[in-house]
Specification:
With about 170 residues, this protein is mostly helical. Helix content is about 75%, strand content about 0%. It has a single domain (about 5-160), classed as Ferritin (Up-down Bundle), CATH 1.20.1260. Bound molecules: hydroxy diiron-OXO moiety (OFO). Hydroxy diiron-OXO moiety binds near residues 17 and 53.
Length: about 170
């Protein structure tokens, strides 16, 4: 059985992952509104990944005998200046999420909960990927430097992103 402290913290993390999903869905809506449908697709795929992250925590907490309590998901930002502004927001958001995951790992170690600490390693690795893909897009957007043609090509590229496979 999982400790009360970790139960509460994982419930908060479920909320944080669902908020990430909501934020990326809002970014997808923004891209739709400026006719960048490839960017909008990328964000929809990202939103689905966040749902997977939330559900992995959900299933784990249930498996460990914890009680899942769903809290209110706060309303995300809905407007940005341009694609670069959006992806800088993604990058800083993911850095924040990495901090939350690291805090959870620290707590699992303090609580001497090896199973949870082991379970969290998947997220530790996932966050490396999340930060690196956001950072790569930020850097690519900087290189485009207001080129309409470049943005059009990049939009087509991001439109190719397909749903992630659910990892066990
Ligand atoms: Fe769940 O990794 Fe992004 O937020």
């Amino acid at each position: 059985m999982i400790s009360k402290k970790l139960e509460t913290a994982i419930n908060e993390q479920i909320n944080a992952e669902l908020y990430s999903a909501y934020l990326y869905l809002s970014m997808s809506a923004y891209f739709k509104s400026v006719n960048l449908n490839g960017f909008a697709n990328w964000m929809r795929m990202q939103e689905q990944e966040e749902q997977i992250h939330a559900m992995k925590f959900f299933d784990y907490l249930s498996e460990r005998g914890g009680r899942i309590i769903l809290k209110e998901i706060k309303s995300p930002r809905s407007d940005w200046k341009n694609p670069l502004d959006v992806f800088e927001n993604v990058y800083s958001h993911e850095q924040k999420v990495t901090g939350l995951i690291n805090d959870l790992v620290d707590m699992a170690i303090e609580e001497n909960d090896h199973a949870t600490s082991n379970f969290l390693q998947w997220y530790v690795e996932e966050q490396v990927e999340e930060e690196s893909s956001a950072d790569e897009i930020v850097e690519n957007l900087k290189l485009l430097d207001d080129s309409r043609n470049g943005l059009f090509m990049f939009d087509r590229e991001l439109g190719k992103r397909t749903p992630a496979q659910t990892e066990e």
